[in-house]
UniProtKB/TrEMBL annotation:
InterPro entries: Gate_dom, SpmA_SpmB, SpmB. One of its GO terms (cellular component) is plasma membrane. Keywords: Membrane, Transmembrane, Transmembrane helix. The chain crosses the membrane at residues 43-62, 140-160, 172-193, 205-230, 236-255, 278-298, 351-374, 386-408. The keyword Membrane applies. It comes from Pseudomonas laurentiana. Residues 51-159, 276-379 form the Nucleoside transporter/FeoB GTPase Gate domain. The lineage of its organism: Bacteria, Pseudomonadati, Pseudomonadota, Gammaproteobacteria, Pseudomonadales. This is Spore maturation protein.
Length: 409
């Protein structure tokens, strides 16, 4: 599947470039595409430099948590649930605790912590995978839930809006929470259908129903806070949780008589090795994205969508936010740039900017996640992971548009 998608990016880019040259007379399009390839290759290396430090840091702390028994304890707590959702993972396996930590970090918007934890979990799942190149059911479910971008505190979106001068940076908090919940639900259901998981199992419901009730109560509580209080709470919770995890790992490790410094260095070496193996996959995917962007294919698609929406007589304001949605599956940095450009062009509190911010906060860089997570363990055949992840992505985009019309139209 990834082979076809990667080739498809280049084919679509080539067709778009030929149309611009032969029909539009743009002879410089091919130079722009070549420049895009080299620019993305350079960006891949720059991303790797950041990943080296982040992975080395967090896998060092995770090694302490692992030796202190934190990961094993989490695995036991969630064992009954994951036995139903991931029946091929043995009870108490370390992967279960790592998956839990990854979801918690994602929910709090701690991207720098979530990625290395997720890579560690994917490697643990690969140890159980009978195939070295084909994704297992457990790996697919884990990846799709990651790609569905369940975020409770979208701190980075608040930061972007504040930088652009928004009067209320947290205005999109509840829309993002609703939209990202929709994308995660669709992701889980799509995988459940493909893998024939029994979500109505009493044990599964015993975990999911209280979680849904807690989420609803959390939303109700936050809805009653002022904008300034919400922004302060978001910042404090994110940073406190991040540093709190570090201290928790260190203190439990010291209590269990783990040699924390030596253990950190041992885990950090693993992080360096993991990061080193990612570069070929990043170069491949980001260069394909660079060609697609430089060819003008995204602009062609946007004009077509606007024409179709107008033909049906629907409101077209949301179309101006679609560049963020269209590039988000491929590149987080490109989506960030599209979001900021929309804020600057239309106004930070304009309807297109609010939709773009909600989309940015409720969707994930699906193909980047695929390349990094599967690339880290050498998976080449993704099976239904791509389809389910993109379905969750589409649900997040549609929910973001619908919720913003509900809240802001």
């Amino acid at each position: 599947m990834l082979n076809g998608l990667w080739l498809g990016f280049f084919v679509v880019a080539a067709v778009s470039a030929l149309a611009q040259w032969l029909v539009g007379g743009n002879a410089g399009i091919f130079a722009a595409m070549v420049e895009g390839i080299f620019a993305m290759a350079k960006l891949s290396v720059e991303v790797m430099v950041l990943l080296f430090g982040t992975l080395t840091l967090w896998l060092g702390f995770l090694k302490i948590a692992e030796k202190a028994g934190v990961v094993e304890w989490l695995a036991k707590v969630l064992g009954p649930l994951f036995q139903r959702l991931m029946p091929e993972v043995p009870p108490g396996h370390p992967a279960l605790g790592l998956i839990t930590l990854n979801f918690a970090a994602n929910g709090l918007g701690l991207d720098n912590a979530a990625t290395p934890i997720g890579l560690k979990a994917m490697r643990a799942l690969q140890e159980l995978n009978p195939s070295s190149t084909t994704a297992s059911n457990a790996q697919i479910l884990f990846l799709v839930l990651n790609a569905s971008s369940l975020t409770l505190l979208p701190v980075t979106i608040f930061m972007y809006r504040a930088q652009q001068g928004a009067l209320d940076p947290t205005l999109v908090f509840l829309p993002i929470l609703l939209a990202t919940s929709a994308s995660t639900l669709v992701g889980l259901l799509s995988v459940a259908v493909m893998q024939r998981l029994r979500l109505w199992d009493p044990v599964v419901l015993a975990y999911l129903v209280p979680g849904a009730l807690l989420l609803g109560g959390f939303m109700a509580l936050l809805a009653g806070l002022s904008a300034s209080a919400l922004a302060t709470l978001s910042s404090i919770m994110g940073n406190l949780t991040l540093f709190g995890l570090i201290m928790l790992f260190l203190l439990i490790g010291a209590f269990k008589r783990v040699k924390v410094y030596e253990t950190f260095v041992e885990g950090a070496k693993e992080g360096f090795d993991v990061a080193k193996s990612l570069l070929p996959y990043l170069v491949a995917m980001l260069c394909a994205v660079g060609v697609l962007r430089a060819s003008g294919a995204l602009e062609f698609g946007l004009d077509g969508i606007r024409y179709a929406v107008d033909w049906f007589g629907w409101d077209t304001r949301f179309v101006d936010a679609l560049p963020t949605a269209l590039v988000k599956p491929f590149s987080g940095s490109a989506a960030r740039a599209m979001l900021i450009e929309t804020m600057q062009s239309h106004g930070v509190d304009s309807f297109p900017a609010l939709v773009a911010a909600t989309v940015q906060g409720s969707t994930e860089t699906t193909f980047y996640v695929l390349a990094v997570y599967f690339g880290a363990v050498g998976i080449q055949r993704a099976r239904h992971a791509v389809g389910c992840a993109l379905l969750a992505e589409l649900a997040g985009v549609l929910a973001a548009i619908g919720v913003c019309y509900w809240f802001f139209a």
